[in-house]
Amino acid sequence: MQEKSTMGFPLFAIGAASILGYFLFKGTTLKESAENIRVSLLNVPKVHKIDLSGLKISLDLRVDNPAQGLIRLKIPTIEATYKGKLVASTPVNNTIYTIDPVSSGKITGFMIEANYISLIMAAPTIISDITVKGAAGILDNFGFKALAEVNGIPLKIEKL
Questions:
Q1: Which residues lie across from 39 on neighbouring strands?
Q2: Whole-model pTM?
Q3: pLDDT digit string (tens) for 90-129?
Q4: What is the per-residue pLDDT for 78?
Q5: CA-closest candidate to residue 75, choices 101, 37, 48, 43
Q6: pLDDT score of 27
Q7: Which residues, at least 6 apart from 94, have a Cβ–Cβ distance to it below 8 Å?
Q8: Which alpha helices (H) appear in the chain, and where do they start and end?
Q9: d(CA 41, CA 98)
Q10: Which 3 state secondary structure label does DSSP give 67?
Q11: For residues 33 and 69, what is the distance between their CA atoms, to the nearest angstrom?
Q12: What is the mean pLDDT of residues 133-147?
């Protein structure tokens, strides 16, 4: 008669628990990296070009990575809004930017494109606000937000 070994199951359980624990820890680390990243405007957006297709605004971003790990950041689109309504956006971009641990980086050359139709639709509100508050008063109503991915985790940045 042959005896069955009972040692196999405990070793299997320990191995499976170790692998599961590693992936749970790694997922938490990636999530914390996504939540702690800071993306902001590096400088004031500038009018880059006005032509027959519309208005192009250039902007640069500053990215702060306080995490201990390297992050891979993808910013598919940045939107410009006026009083919460979409006025313009960047073309879709799937470039991945790498930011070193505990450091800051800059990403330059984003072009926000506003066609004349969206500008005309926003113009009455903007002109009305200029007459009431002056040109400097409307700047508070402009906003920039982005959709991003940090290490594959979606992140919505409500205010740049």
A1: 63
A2: 0.72
A3: 989 889 999 998 999 999 999 998 888 888 888 888 888 8
A4: 93
A5: 37
A6: 43
A7: 74, 76
A8: 8-36, 116-133
A9: 18
A10: coil
A11: 8
A12: 80
54 has which bridge partners? 51
- Longest alpha-carbon distance in the chain: 98
Euclidean distance between CA atoms 49 and 30, whole angstroms: 39
Structure tokens at 47: 């009018």
Residue with tokens 């800071």: 38
pLDDT of residue 23: 47
Amino acid at 84: G
Cα gap 61→65, rounded to integer Å:
13
- The secondary structure of residue 50, as a DSSP letter, is E
**What is the share, in percent, of the chain residues with pLDDT greater than 90?**
23
How many CA atoms does the CB half-sphere of 26 hold within 13 Å?
8
Indicate the domain borders of the chain.
Answer: 32-157
Classify domain 32-157 at the CATH topology level.
Answer: Immunoglobulin-like (2.60.40)
